[in-house]
Amino acid sequence: MEALNYPFSNSEIIANKRKLKKQLLAENGDYLEKRIAILGGSTTNEVKNILELFLLNEGIQPVFYESEYNHFYEDAMFDVPELAAFHPDIIYIFTTNRNIGRYPSISDSAEQVNALLDEQYNKFRSLWEHIREKYGCPVIQNNFEMPLYRLLGNRDCYDIRGAVRFVHDLNSKLYDYAQENDWLNVCDINYISADYGLKEWQNPKYWYMYKMPMPMDAVPDLAYNVCRIIKSIFGKNKKGIALDLDNTLWGGVIGEDGVSGIEIGNENAEAEAYLDFQRYLKKLQGIGVILCINSKNDYDNAISGLNHPDSVLREDDFIEIRANWDNKDENHRSIAKAIGILPESILFIDDNPVERDIVKNGIEGVAAPDIGSVDHYIQVIDRLGAFEKVSVSEDDTNRNQMYLENKKREQQRKGFTNYSDYLRSLEMEAEIVPFDAFYYGRISQLSNKSNQYNLTAKRYTKEEIQAVSENPDCITLQGRLADKFGDNGIVSLIIGKVEGSVCSIDLWVMSCRVLKREMEFAMMDSLAGMCKGRGIATIRGVYLPTKKNAIAMEHYGRMGFEKTYEDSTETIWELQIADYQKKNSVIKIKGL
Amino acid sequence: MLIEEIYEKLTEIFRENFDDDTIVLSPATTAEDIEDWDSLEQINLIAGIENKFAVTFDIKETLTLQNVGEMAKLILSKLQAHRK
Q1: Chosen from B36, B43, B45 to mutate, greatest number of chain A CBs within 10 A
Q2: Using a CB-CB distance cutoff of 8 angstroms, which residues of chain A are in contact with residue B59?
Q3: Higher-pLDDT residue of A475, A399
Q4: How far is Cα A369 from Cα A379, in angstroms, rounded to an integer?
Q5: H-type helices in A323-438, by residue range?
Q6: How far does the CA of residue B29 sit from the closest CA of chain A (Å)?
Q7: What are the tens digits of pLDDT across the range A29-39?
Q8: ipTM of the complex, rounded to two decimals
């Protein structure tokens, strides 16, 4: 919804929150329900209300638990029954520097300050660890924002008795812990408050009157930042960017100005701004963001621009290039289709508001932010938070490479008239084994990100993946697929629950980057083999249709299952293992 | 700005905030008269009023307001003080 898309107006959101909520719920999308416990060290009601709007806008319908005012510690440590019964998917500890119990005083010795630091830190640490043990869900913890005043003036930031230094040191301890423990996500209110303007953020009137640690008008900034973390945990990040060229990647119009006429490089202020923007995009690519081009240009002109000596981005940095005179919404769709992801997974960046509208109106759910002028492009895309990283996997850093390999496969395919011959020519090798603890993060990411080839659309956090892996009544399989062009990494997952002689499949997903490679047959063979080994007679599968997974509708039929039940919300399928015939003939299997 | 215009703008803010187009304000209107107007909504209302009229209320002013009439008068006096 436009009012909630970045860049948004804080005051408009606050004034219209009821209406916005009503409209979002009326849209009646495919909401993913998530249970979020907010344990607050101050008033959290408005944080909750505005967070709800942003989450709904991302397709997540939150159910909230809110601690009593300033009971964040008691609620979690002493296991109030309401919280235990709530079964949170996420716990958000909303604390601020108002919740630091005691600061050093000027007469404290270095030992005393250190002891105080440990005391304050350990209070939080014991809280996280208790939550971890009791609830096993991801935790979001605010860091501490800068204090209201500096008693020692500038000295406050380096003297160990200064409050600024104390907050800084406490934050450092928090970061060290978070770095080692992936389930702890820091919400950086220290940055957000600075970004908003610390003087305004620290307006103490709101604390005295309402016990709010920030003004009402700052709440949307905070809530949006929390929403970024939550949507990333549940796999709702964007995967790529489709970029315009003229006045987006460089200044000027290449069709008129020619290669030597466009602005990119160090010649002047404008050229420098475009250069920096390209450097930023290159960095995004480094964390796994796919780059594509969607431009109204002659193809040859577009390529000549990318060959400009000062251009940071080169032709082969882009997975798909559409430089033509077609409508940009059509191009956007065709880019998504070629990569095998959904159009709304790609951010559209164009300086031209008319083109942005065409793409936004032409394709539901595509973000096409108003990026302003070139000196603001980086800030807008950064604050938009489409690529928020709650974890960094090896796959992220290699993603671009993988898509480039896919393009080579596609070229190879064109040389074959018989599809099976093509598949054999790829010399595929799969490793299919039970979930390996080393990959829990990637497994969770895959379960969250796969929307299309996903039979049940169930989502698993890293903690839940660990739980099923350690449960003797569960069968788990992860499949990695490599071929002569490269390694795709882990691309398919199965989770089955065993009851007696029946194994019911709770999760079966496959990454769309390996569609039509018969990897699903290889997974099926391994599953059947594993079930057989455990004396299981029947495998039961269910298909739960969503807006996005029609591609998997006939999956179980293709695997040789019989349909045993059908209504509009599900189809149920069964396979008797005794009759099972191996299906894969093109992939060599390692493991099992 | 005349006191009538202030009421008009206030009505708009209240209607928007409570998403209820039937709200009619009088000088005697208090939190008792509007169902969802509780202490938490008060934060939103004050923030909205401060935004729309470009004024700020200090703690004492906010605490002593008894009804919409006093609110309107306070806004008027602040706007007049601005002009001086």
Answers
A1: B43
A2: 205, 208-209
A3: A475
A4: 12
A5: 328-339, 353-362, 377-384, 394-414, 419-425
A6: 20
A7: 778 899 999 99
A8: 0.85
